[in-house]
Amino acid sequence: MQPTAPLLRRLRRLALTTKQVNGGYYKGTGSGSMGRHTKHGGYIIDYRKVRTYVVPTDLKDFKLTPFVTKTMEPLKGHFEGDPKGGLSGERYLDRWKRENGMD
To answer: Which of 75, 103, 79 is nearest to 92 (CA)?
Structure first.
């Protein structure tokens, strides 16, 4: 069974996979190596290969804006009656028992 001509055209526009080409094709993730492996199973980081990002010193008059609005209020959870807040183990267990039943 062969795909129709319009479907075949769409398939050719997709990115290549390792099954569509001969041996030796390795797609990778684009992350690059930051060091080397040792013969004992360790990894040594080469700091000349590590990416570093330089932030401008004066951002007050910077013309580019972030993707998130600066006027948004921070959201806070409401945990009435629990002095430990949202990280309380008792609160987690109570909710788990309500949703999953007793074991």
So the answer is: 79
Separation CA 79–CA 91 (nearest Å): 9
**φ and ψ at residue 35, rounded to 5 degrees:** 180, -150
Residue type, 85: G
What is the spatial distance between Cα 39 and Cα 36, in angstroms, rounded to a whole number? Answer: 10
96, containing H or E segment: helix 89-100
pTM value > 0.70: no
3-state secondary structure of 5: helix
pLDDT per residue over 29-54, tens digit each? 878 889 999 999 999 999 999 988 88
Gyration radius of the chain's alpha carbons: 27
Beta bridge partners of 37: 43
